[in-house]
Amino acid sequence: MSGKFEITNMNMKLGTTLKIKGKIADDTDSFIINLGQGTDKLDLHFNPRFSESTIICNSLDGEWGQEQREDHLCFSPGSEVKFTVTFERDEFKVKLPDGHQMTFPNRLGHSHLSYLSVQGGFNISSFKLD
Amino acid sequence: MACGLVASNLNLKPGECLRVRGEVAPDAKSFVLNLGKDSNNVCLHFNPRFDIHGDINTIVCNSKDGGAWGTEQRESAFPFQPGNVAEVCISFDQTDLTIKLPDGNTFKFPNRLNLEAINYLAAEGDFKIKCVAFE
C-alpha cells in the first residue's frame, strides 16, 4: 500500500472493540496504527519496531506524551496478523496476535474515537467494529 | 444526509473485492456508499432508497466526475430491510463495477471514470458500517 490508510468520521465509542487484520510487509522495520481524533490528536499510537524488538505506544495531544515500551514482539515481517483494540474509559486493551494483552492508559480521557490510520509496513485486509 | 465513515488510500485494484457490512437503521430512509478517488470523483454512488425523494425500495446508482453528476441508473432489486444487517461486495474492472447484493444477486454499473484504483470509500445516511474487508 502506498500512502497512509486513513479513516475519518468513525464512530468508535467506549466499550467498542476494533479488530484489524492484515499482512506485515516482508521487508519492513516498523508500522504504526493510530487511533484518535485526528492526525495531531492521537489517543493511541501503536508502533511495533522490528529493528528494536519492541512495541512503542504513546499519545499525541499537540505534543507527544511519554513513551511506553512493551518487549513482547510476537510477530514478524511477512506474517498475517490480527490486532484487537478495546477502548475503555481508563485504558486501551490491545490483544496481540499470540493472545498476549497489553494496555495503554486513556490519557486524553476521550470517550469517542473518530480517526484511524495505518502507516508503514502493514497492509490492512479488514477492520471490524464490534 | 448524515455523513458516516470515510476511508482513504484503500488502494483497491481491479479484480479485488471490497466487502462492506453494516447495520441499516430501523427507521432507514436512505443510505449511500460512495467509491472512487475522492469526494468529487466517485465511480460508484450506490444509494438504496427505502422511502425518499419519491422513490420506494429502489437502488439508485450514479457517478460523479470532477464534481459533476452523471446519468442515474435504477435497479429494481432491493434486498435491504430497515433494522437488518446488510453486506455488499464491490469489485471492478476497466469496463464495469460489479455489485453483489445481500441476497447474492449481482448487477453492473459502468466504470465511467476509468479509475485504475479505488482509494476512497464514504458512507452516508442510515447505514452504520461494522466491517470492511479487502479481498
Structure description:
The complex is a heterodimer of chains A (130) and B (135). Chain A has 130 residues and is an all-beta fold. Chain A has strands at 5-8, 12-13, 17-24, 31-38, 41-49, 54-61, 63-64, 68-70, 80-87, 91-95, 101-105, 112-113, 115-120, 122-129. In chain A, the strands form three sheets. In chain A, strands 1, 4, 5, 6, 7, 8 and 13 form a seven-stranded antiparallel sheet that branches. A five-stranded antiparallel sheet of chain A has the order 11-10-9-3-14, with no helix packed on it. Chain A is globular, with a radius of gyration of 13 Å. In chain B, 0% of the residues lie in helices and 65% in strands. Chain B is built from no helices and twelve strands. With 135 residues, chain B is mostly beta strands. The A-B interface holds A 1-11, 124-130 and B 3-11, 19, 128-135. Chain A: Keywords: Lectin. Chain A: It holds the Pfam family Gal-bind_lectin. Chain A: It comes from Hipposideros armiger. Chain A: This is Galectin.
SSE pattern of chain B, N- to C-terminal: EEEEEEEEEEEE
* Structural class assignment of chain A: mainly beta
What is the strand tally of chain A? 14
Rg of chain B: 13 Å
The average pLDDT value of chain B, as a whole number, equals 95
Catalogue the unreliable spans of chain A. none
Largest sheet of chain B: 7 strands, antiparallel
The profile of the biggest β sheet of chain A is: 7 strands, antiparallel
Number of helices of chain B: 0
Oligomer: heterodimer
Radius of gyration of chain A (Å) = 13 Å
Number of distinct beta strands of chain B: 12
What's the N-to-C terminus distance of chain B? 29 Å
> Approximately what portion of the residues of chain B adopt beta-strand conformation?
over 45%
Helical content band of chain A: under 10%
What is the general shape of chain B? globular
